[in-house]
Amino acid sequence: MNFRFSMMLLMLSVLGFSQDLTVMSFNIRLNVESDKENAWPQRKQDVADLLTYYHPDYFGVQEALPEQMKDLKTGLKNYNYIGVGRDDGKEQGEFSAIFYDTGRLDVLKSGTFWLSETPEKPSKGWDAALNRICTYAVFKDKKSKKEFLAMNLHFDHVGNVARVKSSELILKKIKELNPKNLPVTLSGDFNLTDDSEPIKILSKNMKDTFYHSETKHYGPVGTFTAFNVNEIPKDRIDYIFTKGFTIRSHRHINDRRENLLYPSDHFPVIVNLSL
User: CB of 96 within 8 A of CB of 152?
Assistant: First the structure.
């Protein structure tokens, strides 16, 4: 085997080993009739079109009600999902599900736990106003054959104690679910800015992709709009944290529908990662 051919094989093996993944977190806003022109029936096709265009290898949703889960499942090609409703652990209540491209990823293990003192069953934790959940999956990349852990959640919007305890629980669960110390992504609507204690707890143990991207963040800094197209969003409350990945790029997608309204009241967060 000559030197040139050996080098070519080496380069191909490196390229095969280092594969990029596109990951998204998207609070799609639950289906509420009072949202009027921003209500889900008016924008569900726009959400599906956005997801089809950016085509993340996997993405976590928040606030997705059962009928919205069905709409996403039927509106997207070659995607399946992992997740359950937070009220009963089956089909009731909001999902914090993970959708994944079935042509790219295999699921090796998956589940959901509650952000509470009893994470194994439907429950409300500490001083939280509502049941809150985290859905997870161990994926195997069909291209690189590498495995990683993906987690997706929605923190409470009221309970200060619950949010601190939820961050601590997440770190504990990562250790429990990840004995092989695989790379990890943690996506979600955290209902908190990055100067808060719960976000600081996570940032000490994982990388906030907003700050650690190789290329400068693109798009507005804030992610929560309340559907207001006339004001610049101030608060960044949607995040993707990682451990064991190289973060290539980070963006908040502020695309609009044809009528110039937003597809949701949160901007999707999208990152490009390398295994």
Answer: yes
- 71-95 confidence digits (pLDDT tens): 999 999 999 999 999 999 999 999 9
Q: How many beta carbons lie within 10 A of that of residue 67, not counting itself? A: 13
3-state secondary structure (DSSP) of residue 139: strand
Give the burial class of 147: count Cβ atoms within 10 A of its Cβ; 0-12 exposed, 13-18 middle, 19 or more buried.
Answer: middle
CATH of the domain at 81: 3.60.10.10
Count Cβ atoms within 10 A of the Cβ of residue 190 and give its class: 0-12 exposed, 13-18 middle, 19 or more buried.
Answer: buried
Is residue 223 included in any domain, yes or no? yes
> Among 37, 46, 41, 49, which Cα is nearest to 65's?
41
Please tell me the distance from the alpha carbon of residue 72 to that of residue 45, in angstroms, as a whole number.
9
CA end-to-end span of the chain: 30
In-domain check, residue 34: no
**Percent of the chain whose pLDDT exceeds 70:** 93
Please report which helix (H) or strand (E) contains residue 228, including its range: none
